[in-house]
Design brief:
There is one protein chain. This protein is of the alpha+beta class and 205 residues long. Helices cover 36% and strands 22% of the residues. The protein has two domains: 2-159, no CATH class; 160-205, Arc Repressor Mutant, subunit A. The strands form two sheets. It has a five-stranded antiparallel beta sheet. Residues 148-157 have low confidence and may be disordered.
Length: 205
């Protein structure tokens, strides 16, 4: 199957970050999300899994009065609805999170969310708009793609601390946890956990 050519000039990281800065005084708290999309066929072409950025917010909707009367103790009188906003590359999309994740093949275990204040700190630290999610680099390497300009592919890549590596080792050693579960909990890719497992000489996996 033909592979769909990815746009290296995409602006998703910059657009998502600037959007939350420009709208931070609005009613809902906004978050920038860095995650993975793709891994599916579209119009006869394979769209490789690659990094992407969008914005999310949560809207609380009150329950109907008929339900409030029988609400069990300790339950909140509202439901939370999450929405995704995607303004990248000229798009103007706003969808419920479930639909956005479904169409984009987004795995919640592979995302990282950043508050408005956190985006400022990360931008100052890494000197670019993103990605600031280690998993994105690993997935794009495995897929043989790179959606960032050449001079930014490695610049400011988040480093994995020894503490994170040691935490992963402790979680795997003498336990029944899967590599995928540990990867999600410590915030690295499953491929990274796999390399560490070989390095540590664990035979279970």
């Amino acid at each position: 199957m033909k592979r769909k050519k990815l746009n290296k000039g995409g602006d998703c990281y910059e657009v998502a970050m600037k959007y939350v800065w420009q709208h931070e005084d609005e009613e809902h708290e906004l978050f920038v999300v860095h995650g993975i999309v793709g891994g599916f066929e579209f119009q006869g072409e394979y769209v490789a899994r690659h990094g992407h950025a969008w914005v999310e917010y949560c809207e609380r909707k009150p329950l109907p009065e008929s339900m409030m009367k029988n609400l069990p103790e300790g339950h909140f009188p509202y439901v939370e609805m999450w929405y995704c906003i995607d303004k990248s590359n000229g798009k103007d999309a706003e969808l419920p999170r479930e639909l956005y994740y479904y169409y984009g093949h987004v795995n919640e275990a592979e995302i990282k969310m950043f508050s408005v204040d956190e985006t400022r700190k990360m931008c100052l630290k890494h000197k670019h708009y993103g990605p600031w999610n280690e998993i994105i680099y690993d997935v794009e390497k495995e897929e043989g793609v790179g959606t960032l300009p050449e001079n930014k592919k490695r610049r400011g890549r988040p480093r994995i601390s020894e503490r994170t590596k040691e935490k992963a080792k402790m979680m795997l050693e003498g336990s029944d946890r899967s590599m995928a579960d540990v990867a999600r909990r410590v915030g690295v890719s499953e491929g990274t956990i796999g390399r560490w497992v070989k390095e540590w000489g664990f035979r279970k996996w």
